[in-house]
Amino acid sequence: MRFGVIGHKGRMGEALAAAITEAGHTLQVGVDAGGDPEPLACQCDVLVDFSAPAALAANLAAARAAGIPILIGTTGLGEEHVIMLAEAAKVVPVLQTGNFSLGVTLLAHLVREAASRLGPDWDIEVLELHHRMKVDAPSGTARLLGEAAAQARGISLPDHMESGRHGMTGARREGAIGFATLRGGTVAGEHSVIFAGPSERLTLSHSAEDRMIFARGAVKAAEWLRGKPAGRYTMEDVLGL
What pTM was estimated for this model as a whole? Predict the structure, then answer.
């Protein structure tokens, strides 16, 4: 496959280049800030976007114009971006995720299972630790895990999300999903979801030891996505969960 990588000079772009070569594919060309993704898309079988939310509209438009699948690992997306993804998915296959790791994908599945089976008297807290250079918080992966828990309980994450607690906050709000964010060092990514119930506690965790796990997961997802009809896809689809 011929890959086009948007954001190819960043940390994830460099890891992707290595993973693409490792898997026997070709990095056709890359684009970074200020570059036009449309000529790139015309030379490729798939686009992988690890750039910035502000670039999403142009990147989706390039995939649509070329009629090729696009994978999006950009974090920090808002509601307006969700609408853009849905529109693009009417034309081409779109896979967007907060984390391409196969282990994190399975973790989200387990979180959904636990949240659906444990009652509301089990409080849910999401803890994440990343390197000091990460600019968004909570991480896209933390939000993915929180969303999995919220979906399982039939609630809206934005309406029940609590983060950045400080000072006299009062008692924990019933049904809240809490987030704690840690930053420091060169940590690739650590995530835990804590289910704290009456007199017992369950913790589901994942530790990323190397950025290559995300890159290899993205390549695997791209291989799976090729030839699929237009639509929205997830990493759970890739793993058959």
Answer: 0.82
